[in-house]
Amino acid sequence: MAAPGSLQSHDIRAEVPPPRSGDVVRGDTMVAMAPRLLVLEDDVGLRRSLRMVLEDDGYDVIEAADAERALAVVSDHGVDLMLVDLMLGGMDGFSFIQRARPHTEAPIVVVSARDGVQDIVAALEAGADDYVTKPFVVEEVKARLKALLRRPAMGGPGETRARDDVFVLDGQDGPLVFDRGAAALSRGDDEIHLTNTEFRLLSVLVDNAGRVLSRSALLEHVWDQGFFGDERIVDVHVRRLRKKVELQPGSPTILVTVRGLGYRLDTR
Amino acid sequence: MTPRRRGRGLRASVTLAFALGALGLSTILAVGTYFSARHFLLEQRERTAMRQAFTDSALVRDSLLTSGAEVSDVLGSISPPAGAVIYVRRDGEWYSSALDSSGPELTAKVQPVVRRGSVGIAWTDATDPPAVVVGIPLAAADAEYYEVSVAEELDRTLWTLAVALFVCAGLTTVAGALLGRAASRRVLAPLSEVTTAAVRLSAGDLDTRLGPTEDPDLAALVGSFNHMVDALHERIDQDARFAADVSHELRTPVTTLTTSLTLLQNSSGLPPRSEQAVRLMATELARFRRALEDLLVLGRLDAGSHEAEPISIGARELARQALVASDLSPLLVRAVPDGGPDPEIRVDRVQMLRALTNLARNAELHGGGLTAVTVADRGDQVDVHMEDRGPGVPTEDRARIFERFARAGGEKAGTGSGLGLSIVEQTVRNHAGHVWCADRPGGGAVFVVRLPAARRPAP
Predict the structure, then answer these.
(1) Is B309 close to A231, i.e. CB distance below 8 A?
(2) Do both A35 and A107 map to the same domain?
(3) Which of A135, B5, B166, B176 could form an SS bridge with B255, CB 3.0 to 4.6 Å?
(4) One domain, residues A123 and A244
(5) Of residues B85 and B412, which shows the higher confidence score?
(6) Is-contact B429 B416, C-beta < 8 A?
(7) Is the ipTM of this complex over 0.85?
C-alpha cells in the first residue's frame, strides 16, 4: 500500500531524464538508448529490488507506486516497456492498463499475485501483453521483457528490404497491407496501429500463411514460453488482432480458427 | 450395558425385548384366564353336584321313611346320574349304589361335617379324575347321604383350556418378536440413512446432507446432523483458506527475496564466506519458492478451479510434452497397443502436464531415473505408466506417499516440497481419474495414472 506521505520520496526517480531524441527514432545507426522501463508496483521492497536487477540488465527504470503517477510518466515521458502489478492502492492495475493503452504501444507485462483464470484474461483483454504470477524468478521476467522488446526481422534502413517483407493480407477491401520492415499495417490509406505483441503474432502468422498453427506453437514463437504458458494468452491476442485486420471480427475471413487445432492466416 | 451383551445388535435387542414383553404379558393373561375359568367351572360343578345330591338325597330319604325298606333296595331302585356314585351310611353300615366299598375313604373329608348335622362339600383326589363329594345328613331317616361325582368333563375342559392358552401365549410371543423386528426396522431406517450419509461424507462428498423430514422426533437428529456437516465443511474450508491465504501473503515477499538475492549472486568481489552464504540462501530460497508454488497449486486444485480450458489432447503427446518439460527424452514414451492411434483425454492441459511432470521428476529424484512411459489405450480409459528402476515403494507406503508432506526415501530425499505426489493425486482426482503405485516387473516402481478417455466425436 502506498502511504500518502511516501509519494514524494520515491515515486519517480528525481533524475528522470528528459525525453531524448535517440528514443524517438528507432533503428537509428546510433546505438539505441537503454529501453525505458516503468515498474508500477506498490510494494517498496519488490519495486526496489526489481529496479536494481533490471538496471543491471541495461534498462532505464522508472519506479511508480501508484497508477496515477504511472499514467503521468507514460504521458509525459513515454516508456518502452511496463511491468504492472494489479493490486494497487487507489486505481488498480486493470484500470491503469485500459487508460494507458490508448497512449502507448509499449508492451505491458503484468506481475501479479492473482492467478485466477478470470484475472489473467481480464488483464490481457484490458491490453496487457503478458502475465507473470508471483512468486517468479526475475530471470523469467527478464526473458519475457526481452522477447516483447524484440521485433523479429526488423531491418535497419541500410539493409535492402526483402520483397517478401510486404504482405497483402486482403487484396479486395482496402487493400490490407502488412509492411513488416516498416512495422506498419494499413487498410487503404488508413494506418492501423499494432502493439508489439500484435506485430509479433501477425509476423509469425504471415510467415506460416495457409498453415495451421497450434496455440502452443504460437506460445513458443511469439511469447518464448515453454509448454506451461497459458493458451488463453493466444486466444485473447488473436481476438485483439482480429479487431484490426478483419472487417467483421465476429466472422473472421483472414485470421480463422481451425477448431481443435489452432489458427490459420488466409490471404485473400 | 455389560461387556457380554455388547455383541448383540440394536435390532436384535429390540426384537428380543418385544418378544419377552409379549411372552410376559401373554403368560400373565393366560395364567389369569386359566385360574379364573377354573375357579368358575369348579364352582359351577360344585353347585350342580350339590343340586343333584339334594334331589337324590330327598328321594332316598323319602323312600327310607315311607316304606321302611332296606337301604340297599332303595339305592337299587334309584338311578344316580352318570359318573356319580351314592353312598349311604346307616347304623354304621355303608351302602353303595355301585357295589363298591370305597365309600368311607372317598367321603372322609366331609364325614365330620355331616356328623355334626351340616351339609358338606369337598374334592377328593382319590379318584382319577378328581371327584366332588357332597355329604347330606338325613336326620329324619337317621342316615348320612353321600354322593361322589367324578368331574370327568371339567377336567377335560380345563386341560383343553390350558393347551389353548399355552398355544396363544406362544403365538403372541412370536407375534411380539415379529412386531419388534418390524418396529426396529422402522425405527432404524433413519439411522441407515444417517449411515449412508456418513459414509459418503467420509468419502469426501462434503455436500451430502440428510433430507428434510416431517417427523418431529427425527427433525432434531436431521437438524443436528446437517448442522454438524455444515460446521465440518466450514472448518475444512477455513483450513484450506488459511493455507491459501498464508501462501498468497508470502508471494510478494518471496519474490522480493529471490530478486534481491539475484543481485547478490550477480555481484562480484564478495568475500568467499559471504559467497558461500549466498549460495546456501539461494538453494533454500529456491526450495521455499517451490514449496510455495506447490501450496498455491494445491490450493487451486482444492478449490477445483481450472488453470486452462479443458481440451482434448493425445495422452502420448501430453506425456512427450511432460518429458520435454522435465529435460528428458520424449522417445521414452511407448504405446500399447503398438502403433495404435494416440488415445485422447480431455484435460486441463496445464494441470495434467504438471502432474505428469511431477511423476517424471519423482522417478528421477527417488526412483533411480525414469526408464519408460507407457501409454495404454484401454477403450474407455487411458493408462499412463511411469516406470523407474529405483528400489520400489514398500506396500505399506503406497497410499501414504500421496498424502501431503509425506516424505519418500532416496538419496535426493528432502529436495522436494513433499507436495508433488499430492498434486498428482488431486489433479487426477479432479479429472475423474485414479493414480496408484505398484511394483514394476523386474524391479523398481510404476506409477499408473488412469484417466477416462475423451469421447471421440462420431466420424
Answers:
(1) yes
(2) yes
(3) A135
(4) no
(5) B85
(6) no
(7) no
Range of the domain at B425: 310-452
Cell numbers linked to B177: 418378536
Question: φ and ψ at B268, to 5 degrees?
Answer: -100, 165
β pairing state of B131-138 and B120-124? antiparallel
List CB contacts (< 8 A) between A116 and chain B: 305
CA B66/CA B85 separation, integer angstroms: 23
| Domain shared by B19 and B137, yes or no | yes
Residues of chain A with C-beta less than 8 angstroms from the C-beta of B258: 135-138
Q: Which of B252, B286, B302 is the last residue of a domain?
A: B302
CB of A259 within 8 Å of any CB in chain B?
A: no
Q: Please give the model's pTM, rounded to 2 decimal places.
A: 0.61
Helix (H) or strand (E) holding B98: none
Contact A151, A27 (CB under 8 A): no
Q: Which domain holds residue A240?
A: 163-265
Cell 497508477 -> residue: A67
User: Could you tell me if A213 and A82 lie in one domain?
Assistant: no
Asked if residue A190 belongs to a domain, the reply is yes
Residue B175 lies in a domain: no
**Is A14 an 8 Å CB contact of chain B?**
no
Q: What is the dihedral of CA A132, A134, A137, A142, to 10 degrees?
A: 30
A221: in domain:
yes
Query: How confident is the model at residue A228, as a pLDDT?
Result: 61
Single out the residue in B302, B336, B357 at which a domain terminates: B302
- Contact by Cβ (8 Å): B342, B315: yes
CATH assignment of the domain containing B151: 3.30.450
Task: Report if residue A154 sits inside a domain.
Answer: no
| A260 at interface of B, judged by CB pairs closer than 8 A | yes
With CA atoms as reference, the chain A residue closest to B304 would be A116
In a domain, A156, yes or no: no
The reply to whether B280 and B319 lie within a common domain is: no
User: What is the rounded CA–CA span in Å between residue B302 and residue B427?
Assistant: 9
In a domain, B206, yes or no: no
Q: How confident is the model over B241-263, as pLDDT tens digits?
A: 787 788 888 999 999 999 999 99
Q: Which residues of B touch A (CB under 8 A)?
A: 248, 250-256, 258-260, 262-263, 266, 289, 292-293, 296, 300, 305-309, 311-312, 321, 324-325, 349-350, 353-354
How large is the average pLDDT for residues B75-85? Answer: 79
Amino acid at the residue A263: Y
Exposed, middle or buried, A265 (CB in 10 Å: 0-12/13-18/19+)? buried
Summarize the confidence of residues B396-417 as an average pLDDT: 72
Contact A35, A60 (CB under 8 A): yes
From the CA atom positions of chain A, what is the Rg in Å? 19
DSSP-based three-state secondary structure for B448: strand
Q: Are strands A36-40 and A60-64 parallel, antiparallel or unpaired?
A: parallel
Contact A56 B250 (CB under 8 A): no
- CB B401: neighbour CB atoms within 10 A? 21
* Sign, Cα dihedral of B197, B199, B203, B204: positive
CB contact at 8 A, A47 and A73: no
CB pairs under 8 A between A and B: 77
- Is the residue at B163 inside a domain? no
B398 and B367 within one domain = yes
Q: pLDDT digit string (tens) for B258-272?
A: 999 999 988 888 899
Cβ contact A46–B353 (<8 Å): no
Who among B254, B308, B321 is closest to A231 (CB)?
A: B308
